[in-house]
Write a structure and sequence with these properties.
The protein has 512 residues and is α+β, with helices and mostly antiparallel strands. Among the domains are: 83 residues, Phosphorylase Kinase, domain 1 (2-Layer Sandwich); 153 residues, Transferase(Phosphotransferase), domain 1 (Orthogonal Bundle), CATH 1.10.510; 115 residues. Helices cover 40% and strands 10% of the residues. The strands form 2 sheets. Strands 1-2-3-4-6-5 form a 6-stranded antiparallel beta sheet. Strands 7-8-9 form a 3-stranded antiparallel beta sheet. Strand 8 and strand 9 form a beta hairpin. Helix 6 packs antiparallel against helix 8. The longest helix has 27 residues.
């Protein structure tokens, strides 16, 4: 590969690699996009050139060229077609189909947030496109609103995933380039990208979960002040539940977002398509018909052997819908976790944030195609293996610790606590207790602990039931019924702690 020349941005009328430049469309952290005319065919294309400062990084430029050639082989209705990829005087470029239109980022500027059906339909399409990218052995690494192109009428658009400027074959490093450049957008970046671990297709599943939250709520999951605070939140803060900020949303969608944004990759959906199907099922109250599977191949394939969390059956109880209320923006009401760790994290990520911002924020107007779908092989999930006692205790205590952390992270928003029949507060407790029960039920204990664990989980299921009763009472404005449900929960607290101690749990058996 030739060394990139010191080039300046192209002007209208310039020629590059046989294309005539008509105008510049935008510029992002890694590339510059032009509207260009392809001589001979007389068709307009979106021509992307690697940014001059990125082209100077020879390793990065080589990867850009290699992965663009792979991306050009992908044919899928939800992936922007790439016509050609090459190099001119050491500068890698790709030519994509151009369609004048809009992107999801611009749409959100106009609409703030989307109706659940609209949001889920778009996420499902993007998930299918990401599956095709992963099946080709690539990881996009910069899934965000500006990289989702839209065509068609508002409310029934066709979605396309675009911008392969930071997509890469992930056979080697993580989210950092060899020169310390961080690749990705901070509001949608997975924890393993931040910590420098080896990444796979599931970083895009995490980002797609963040995007679903953004579409439903109108705010990113962790709207923190400063880059270090946002990175810390992705690494440590519990995934937020959309219904806490938009009470009319189904709590089944909470489960989808929370699982997609799990800190550990093996706890997420194994594929982006699985996330989209789960979101559709959450809206309809049905079960997912297609078994979960990983579709990624090559270097994008998942590396752990652990099975993902099983899909929970759709809830049979229909959650009451609360009327929409005018509230302050979510970011202004969420507690910010600030402390010494933030300072430490800020120091640790300084190098990683060089030229940060990743991907093009220009919202490239891309392709509308009638291309074929990518076929992938479905793989059945392996069955969970029986845990040892030590493993059971560790996993159970992790569940209790996660529940406590989630509760405490939101507590500052509810000064009235349990004394006030607040539907949003009650919904929080339902979300936490129901998720804990599902996670406990997924554990496979050793034979000697089957009965003790079953007794403990039954007690936890009673808690979830009382929380649902309290939510129903709060929604109905029945203060007496609300107080009774809360009293029932509190009256059995010591018994639950005793049952947890019988199993051997430490965190779960401690008074809270």
């Amino acid at each position: 590969m030739a060394k990139a020349r010191g080039w300046t941005e192209l002007a209208d009328g310039d020629e590059f690699a046989g294309y005539r430049i008509e105008t510049r469309l935008g510029r992002g952290g890694m590339g510059i996009l032009y509207l260009a005319l392809e001589p001979g065919l007389e068709r307009r294309v979106a021509l992307k050139l690697i940014a001059p400062e990125a082209a100077a990084d020879e390793v990065f430029a080589r990867r850009f060229a290699e992965e663009s050639r792979i991306a050009a082989s992908i044919e899928h209705p939800n992936v922007v077609p790439i016509y050609a990829a090459g190099e001119e005087d050491g500068v890698p470029w790709i030519a994509m189909r151009y369609v004048a239109g809009s992107d999801l980022g611009r749409r959100l500027v106009q609409a703030t947030r989307l109706e659940p059906e609209h949001a889920v339909a778009l996420i499902s399409q993007v998930g299918n496109g990401l599956d095709a990218i992963h099946a080709a052995g690539l990881v996009h690494r910069d899934v965000k609103p500006a990289n989702v192109l839209l065509s068609g009428e508002p409310g029934s658009e066709h979605a396309y995933i675009t911008d392969f400027g930071v997509a890469r074959n992930v056979a080697t490093e993580s989210g950092l380039t060899q020169t310390g450049r961080f690749v990705g957008t901070l509001d949608y970046v997975a924890p393993e990208q931040i910590s420098g671990e080896t990444i796979d297709a599931r970083v895009d599943v995490y980002a797609l979960g963040c995007l679903l939250y953004k579409l439903l709520v109108g705010e990113v999951p962790f709207p923190r002040e400063g880059e270090a605070a946002r990175l810390y939140a992705h690494l440590h803060d519990p995934p937020p539940a959309p219904s806490l900020y938009v009470p009319s949303l189904s709590m089944a969608l909470d489960d989808v977002v929370i699982r997609a944004m799990s800190k550990s990759p093996q706890d997420r959906y194994p594929s982006a398509g699985d996330l989209g199907r789960a979101a559709k099922a959450a809206l309809s109250g049905s079960a997912v018909a297609i078994p979960e599977r990983t579709v990624a191949t090559g270097a994008a394939a998942t590396r752990e052997t652990a099975a993902p969390t099983p899909v929970a059956a759709a809830p049979t109880r229909e959650t009451s819908k609360l009327p929409e209320v005018q509230e302050a923006p979510p970011g202004s009401r969420r507690p910010l976790l600030v402390g010494v760790l933030l300072a430490l994290l800020a120091a640790a990520v300084v190098v990683a944030l060089v030229a940060s911002g990743g991907g093009d924020g220009s919202g490239i107007d891309g392709a509308v195609g009638d291309t074929g779908t990518t076929e992938t092989t479905q793989k059945q999930k392996p069955q969970p293996q029986t845990l040892t006692k030590a493993e059971l205790v560790r996993k159970g205590d992790e569940i209790c610790a996660d529940s406590q952390t989630t509760y405490k992270s939101y507590l500052g928003r509810f000064p009235g606590g349990e004394e006030e029949a607040d539907p949003v507060y009650s919904r929080l407790l339902v979300t936490i207790s129901s998720k804990a029960v599902r996670r406990f039920r997924a554990l496979d204990p050793p034979p000697a602990l089957e009965q003790p664990l079953d007794a403990y989980v039954n007690a936890q299921e009673e808690v979830a039931g009382w929380d649902r009763d309290a939510l129903s009472a709060a929604e109905a404005g029945d203060a007496a019924a609300y107080a009774k449900a809360r009293e029932s929960r509190e009256a059995t607290k010591e018994e639950r702690e005793r049952l947890a101690d019988v199993v051997g749990f430490e965190v779960c058996s401690q008074p809270q």
